[in-house]
Design a protein that fits this description.
The chain is mainly alpha-helical. It has one domain: Growth Hormone, Chain: A (Up-down Bundle). It is about 85% helix and about 0% strand. It contains 17 helices and no strands. It is a multi-pass membrane protein. Its main location: membrane. It is found in: Cell membrane.
């Protein structure tokens, strides 16, 4: 991987910007979740409503992101998305600094950030094959995954430390706005204007109908392939439950157990640290990246999540439980994209990833509403157990579906 980074200079620059942006995203998510819980007075149902509004852009714009990245200049899309997120985050900083944040403003900020993410992600993923040699693609994809895990590890911990030091989350969030500006600079330097990526574009008329038509055709094709359907559809359903746990239930469990806000950031970092370690181990020991193994690790993840409420008795057990959860999740995270690649052709691999991204992001955004519904029928700890068992059940049904 180090040799690849030395040889692929443009990718290294792009990756550096993305890594910094991922760290900023980790800080942003930490600040966002504790701000939502404070504004909702730790009412998980109200917090879930705010997260539900983040779902709307995924539903409306998600199917368009991949098609737009194939028809418009990817560099321009990424620069626009990064600058827009920097401005939105800057506004969030001001509202936090003057203590004028409420649930409505949080919902609007969440929707804006989600909208720009749906533009950036497909363009970023489509750029990698355009600037990296074919033989270096596996290492480049691995490095991208490592950057994401490092962002999840460093970002929340940095956010927790800075919040404990300065007190006002608005000043903490300045880091995120700065990383988007740095990412913009890296995107601009890494992708040349004369590349095919920015020059040879589709001449087909760009309409909303045609973009949604492409998405619908690819969805119909995926439904007819059993393993691809299970890989994408069942994983997206698992992510619905995972999102409710990571975004709402685990932070609410820690706060409800009397831990400080900074503990939420540390716990999120241990999950990311476990994911980083798990990704390294998985790449070395895994031999079969198929749907059956994917469902197996989703089942194990659900069981680990169901056990997590028992770990709140002490800080060390919380960190240990979060680390194990992240490590198991990393196996699913590594197997999932590899399996999609194996089940796809050159003609539809990009569309299949776009389909998965849309479904997964939609599930993640809906997860807040699910968390709110669960807490109406069960305490937070019980809701976390139910969520874990649901993940394990979905994965077991997926395994049966493949074997039939």
């Amino acid at each position: 991987m180090i040799d690849m980074l030395r040889r692929e200079r443009r990718f290294s620059v792009l990756l550096a910007g993305n890594a910094m942006s991922q760290i900023g995203d980790g800080v942003h998510e930490f600040v966002f979740v504790i701000t939502v819980l404070h504004a909702a007075h730790n009412n998980v149902a109200l917090a879930g409503i705010v997260y539900f509004f983040r779902f709307i852009p995924y539903l409306v714009l998600g199917p368009l992101g991949g098609a737009l990245s194939d028809r418009l200049p990817r560099r321009a899309l990424m620069v626009f998305a990064d600058l827009s997120r920097a401005v939105t985050t800057g506004l969030f900083c001001v509202l936090l600094a003057i203590d004028r944040v409420d649930l409505v403003s949080l919902g609007l900020i969440g929707m804006a950030m989600t909208s720009f993410r749906t533009l950036f992600q497909p363009a970023f993923q489509g750029t990698i094959p355009a600037i990296v040699k074919t033989e270096h693609l596996p290492a480049a994809n691995g490095a991208t995954q490592m950057a994401a895990e490092m962002g999840g590890l460093v970002g929340p911990a940095l956010g927790g430390i800075m919040l404990a030091a300065v007190g006002n989350p608005g000043f903490v969030l300045i880091i995120d706005a700065a990383t988007y500006l740095l990412s913009t600079l890296c995107v601009w330097c890494a992708i040349a204007a004369h590349m095919r990526d920015d020059a040879t574009l589709s001449q087909e008329k760009l309409t909303i109908r045609s973009l949604y038509g492409d998405f619908g055709q690819n969805l119909q094709g995926a439904l007819q392939k059993r393993e691809l359907f299970v890989t994408i559809g069942y994983s997206a359903l698992c992510i619905l439950f995972v999102g409710s746990a990571l975004r709402i239930l685990i932070p609410a469990l820690l706060k409800g157990s009397g831990y400080a806000d900074s503990m939420v950031g540390y716990a999120m970092s241990f999950i990311a640290f476990g994911a980083l370690a798990g990704a390294v181990v998985c790449s070395k020991v895994m031999q079969r990246f198929d749907t059956r193994n994917l469902m197996l690790y989703w089942s194990m993840y659900g069981i680990a999540l169901a056990i997590l409420p028992a770990c709140v008795v002490s800080t060390p057990t919380i960190f240990a439980g979060c680390f194990v959860l992240g490590a198991i999740g990393a196996f699913a995270d590594v197997i999932l994209p590899t399996n999609i690649q194996n089940l796809s052709t050159d003609a539809n691999v990009g569309k299949n990833f776009s389909l998965f991204s849309t479904l997964a992001n939609t599930s993640e955004a809906l997860s807040g509403g699910l968390a709110g519904l669960l807490t109406l029928i069960s305490p937070v700890g019980g809701s976390l157990v139910i969520t874990g068992l649901l993940i394990a059940s979905v994965a077991y049904l997926g395994k049966i579906r493949v074997e039939v």
